[in-house]
Amino acid sequence: MSQPQPGVIPYGSSVIYSGPVDIARPINHDNIRGKTIVITGGASGFGAACLQEWASHGANVIIGDINEKAGTELVARIRQSTGNQNHHFIPLDVTSWPSQAAFFKQAARLSPHGGIDHVMANAGIADAPEQLVFEDPPDYARMDDGPPPKPAMRTLDINLNGVMYTTHLAISYLSRNPGSEKCQVGKHSGTRDRHLILVASIAGLAGLAGQPLYAAAKHGVVGLFRTLRLTTPLKSGIRVNMINPYFVDTPILGPLGAFVMAGGGMATVKSVVEATSRLVADQGIIGRALVIGPNTSEEDAKAMGLERAIEDQAVWDCYAHDFEQTDLFTRRIVGVTNLVTQARGWVGIWSDIRKNLSRKLWKSMGY
């Protein structure tokens, strides 16, 4: 670790996060075998591609999706091709808390070892008409017959609120995964794991013209990652990683998106699967984010506003400097978390806070 800048409070030695991801390192697919992996939005796109890849390496994959027909048929094909009956489809509406809670409970019950090793918060949409209406609203001032109808926010409901539900449940189940240990830097494999993968987007790192709701949601996912990547490994032993794909030719892009990107560089589903597989297979990768972009030159990448560390590389670590040198308040929170987890536990610290607040209250009342 480099020396901290003047005025910056160091995190301390007990913070758990790994260094930049070595993209050139071979992926240890053997460490995927036997793991139980849960994917939301797994019936198509990235989720379906990851299901097929991980199932081929011996993982037990459980997907949830609102498209029951596609999900059921996909899992049936994967079962037949792998001979493994531990792949399952469970109907899931990520915007519904009861649906997500039931999904996780059933997934853990169906898991061969009764727990969940990886959760991929993948479900997402890009509703083009919804974006257009948001930026070109009707004249609300001329609507006199009661309050106007509220704008559709399905993109936020699925891409952000749904991810929040998934993340909350993932922390609960992953932290209690039977036979698992807290994540450790330098420990690259193990029988069980505790891993949350947040699927953001290049739209979470930069603005995306014409997609205000989508970009807002994905920026929210990036903010969630940056908040959890340090404290969740420390408190719950769960490693949190993120992928940020560039434009990929999947159903979420839609015909208009494909038209706009015609002739331009696009990322590939294969590169997304490879990047995500690297995060799944290497238990030593903790608190990292990968951009999956076009396999183009560094000059072209910079022209698109993308910085990369390796020439002609489709996947690279986008770990920004401010991920490490965060603001003073965050570093103090991490420092308190260090003390809590090392010494006394949350009960003791909150007891002190309550006592302190009580003393101030009584003092303000003149006692």
TrEMBL record:
<protein>
    <recommendedName>
        <fullName>Alcohol dehydrogenase</fullName>
    </recommendedName>
</protein>
<dbReference type="GO" id="GO:0016616">
    <property type="term" value="F:oxidoreductase activity, acting on the CH-OH group of donors, NAD or NADP as acceptor"/>
</dbReference>
<comment type="similarity">
    <text>Belongs to the short-chain dehydrogenases/reductases (SDR) family.</text>
</comment>
<keyword id="KW-0521">NADP</keyword>
<keyword id="KW-0560">Oxidoreductase</keyword>
<dbReference type="InterPro" id="IPR036291">
    <property type="entry name" value="NAD(P)-bd_dom_sf"/>
</dbReference>
<dbReference type="Pfam" id="PF00106">
    <property type="entry name" value="adh_short"/>
</dbReference>
<dbReference type="InterPro" id="IPR020904">
    <property type="entry name" value="Sc_DH/Rdtase_CS"/>
</dbReference>
<dbReference type="InterPro" id="IPR002347">
    <property type="entry name" value="SDR_fam"/>
</dbReference>
<dbReference type="GO" id="GO:0005737">
    <property type="term" value="C:cytoplasm"/>
</dbReference>
